Amino acid sequence: MAFAAPVAHADASSDADALLTKGVELREKGRDEEALEVFRQALAKSPSARARAQVALAEQALGMWVLAETDLSAALASTGDPWITKNRGALEGALAVIQKRIATLEVRGAEQADVYVDGVRIGAGSGPFRVEAGKRTLEVRGAGFHSTTRTVELPPGGVARETVTLVPSPAAAGSAPPPPAGGVPPEERSRPAQEDPGSGQRLLGWAFVGTGAALVATGGVGMFVRKGIIDEYNATTCPGLGAEQPKSCDDQVSASRTWLTVSLLTLVGGGAFAVGGLVLVATAPSAEAPSKSTAASRPSLACSPTTAPAGMAIACAGRF
């Protein structure tokens, strides 16, 4: 039992060496994707610096520059692997080639957001991030904010710095803070008083009263004009009603009758308008509406103007 662990380790190392040999053969045949899979199997069996370096070289061949830099840098950090020591110069040259294809990206303003390049999440915060150089699509996504997207140019082997300003989304911006404890929120204090429900009816009522007063005044003027016509008729030599008389006398009689009709209509109409207006004013609801039970038991009367075959009228309905 004491020799079980060393034997198992030796078997894993032997299997890893066989996989590395197979992977190299696949690369020589140009089958880099298959070789990468075999190298990763070897690394899983025996995580050696040599196996990681072979993974990195296969990733380089496939254009996976960021992964290749990470794996090759980790392999070169090992100082006890004979294969790494023997091939360090070539490996460092490969790393230099890889790093010329990569840029460093810093994103200011993304401290609490996720950063995506070409639709792939590369991390969170402002970075720095190692990204494949060239023209890329940068997107910054933050919870409660609108995402920000732009096209950026990442210089090979250089540094690109971008600044973003995240704008709160409507849902986050529209959330109102809780009202202060023990007080009325400012928006409640500044809210206008409730509208008077009876203001429109009262305004209409006073308009009716004014119209009625004008009609009554017109009727009074008409009666005064009619009296003047009658006085003039009596002062002339007209023979009187029922007798044949000159045309001027007939005109005076006709004018007197017309003014009588106009005066009576305006007086009656004015009185109706005035009374109806006063009723509208008196029955208009107040600003503080009563409760349902009180309103149901309280007598009420409502009137409004209407038309009838004989002319203008006031229609009233009430509950007592």
- In the predicted model, the low-confidence regions spanning at least 5 consecutive residues are 1-8, 289-297
Largest sheet: 4 strands, antiparallel
- The whole-number mean of residue pLDDT values reads 79
Q: Tell me the series of helices and strands, N- to C-terminal.
A: HHHHHEEEEEEEHHHHHEE
* Range of helix content: 40-55%
Overall body shape: rod-shaped
Radius of gyration: 51 Å
Assembly annotation = single chain
Termini separation = 108 Å
The main sheet orders its strands as 3-2-5-6
| Structural class by secondary-structure content | alpha+beta
Structural overview:
The chain has 320 residues and is an alpha+beta fold. It folds into three domains: 7-99, Serine Threonine Protein Phosphatase 5, Tetratricopeptide repeat (Alpha Horseshoe), CATH 1.25.40.10; 102-169, Sandwich (Immunoglobulin-like), CATH 2.60.40.1120; 199-240 and 247-285 and 299-319. The protein is built from ten helices and nine strands. It has helices at 4-28, 32-45, 49-61, 65-76, 82-99, 170-173, 186-189, 199-235, 247-283, 292-297, and strands at 102-108, 114-117, 120-124, 129-132, 134-141, 148-154, 159-163, 300-308, 311-319. Strands 3-2-5-6 form a four-stranded antiparallel β-sheet, with no helix packed on it. Helix 2 (32-45) packs antiparallel against helix 3. It is rod-shaped, with a radius of gyration of 51 Å.
In short:
Helix content is 53%, strand content 18%. It is α+β, with helices and mostly antiparallel strands.
Helix/strand layout:
Layout: H1 4-28, H2 32-45, H3 49-61, H4 65-76, H5 82-99, E1 102-108, E2 114-117, E3 120-124, E4 129-132, E5 134-141, E6 148-154, E7 159-163, H6 170-173, H7 186-189, H8 199-235, H9 247-283, H10 292-297, E8 300-308, E9 311-319
Parallel strand pairs: 1-7
Antiparallel strand pairs: 1-4, 2-3, 2-5, 5-6, 8-9
Helix pairs in contact: 1-2, 2-3, 3-4, 3-5, 4-5, 8-9
